[in-house]
Design a protein that fits this description.
The protein is an alpha+beta fold and 154 residues long. It is 25% helix and 32% strand. The strands form two sheets. A four-stranded antiparallel sheet has the order 1-2-3-4, covered by helices on one side. Strands 5-6-7 form a three-stranded antiparallel sheet, covered by helices on one side.
């Protein structure tokens, strides 16, 4: 063995100074990342208390404008069972004509919800098959508008 190998001391570790004695200090603690919960969704748009999440990315909720456009059609008609009953019962008595007063509604279409903010615009369409779905979609957007109003102005 040569004298150079014996006299040489190992180099100190880079993370801890050599003159510190005692146990190794714990690594610095970072707060775990906890995403905000999604409070409401409309189509493929989700909203937290401070963010708008779309398939194209996340944006701040503050300063956004929400627009709802109802693009549904209502078709009112006499159902086929009422016509059959009216014809069958008209033969026996004229009371069968009352069945012609029965009307059936069929709602088709969609509600378009768009969000516009600083440097972004996104729109989604919610398919509608019932009047309650129109009301529900409008109430969801009103809730989001209330979230926007509660935030400080950007």
């Amino acid at each position: 063995m040569s004298d150079d190998a014996i006299d040489r001391t190992p180099e100190p570790e880079m993370g801890r100074p050599q003159w510190v004695s005692g146990p190794e200090p714990p690594p610095p603690q970072r707060e775990p990342f906890t995403p905000e919960p999604v409070l409401v969704t409309v189509g493929d748009i989700g909203c937290t208390a401070t963010r708008v999440m779309t398939p194209s990315g996340q944006r701040p909720l503050a300063g956004t404008v929400w627009i709802v456009t109802n693009q549904t059609t209502v078709d009112r008609r006499i159902p086929s069972y009422a016509i059959v009953l009216a014809v069958l019962l008209m033969i026996f008595c004229l009371l069968g004509l009352v069945f012609l007063a029965v009307k059936e509604e069929k709602i088709q279409g969609f509600v378009q919800v768009s969000v516009q903010g600083p440097d972004f615009y996104y729109a989604t369409q919610v398919k509608i098959t019932d009047r309650a779905q129109v009301f529900d979609t409008e109430q969801r957007v009103n809730y989001i508008r209330a979230l926007v109003a509660a935030l400080p102005a950007a």
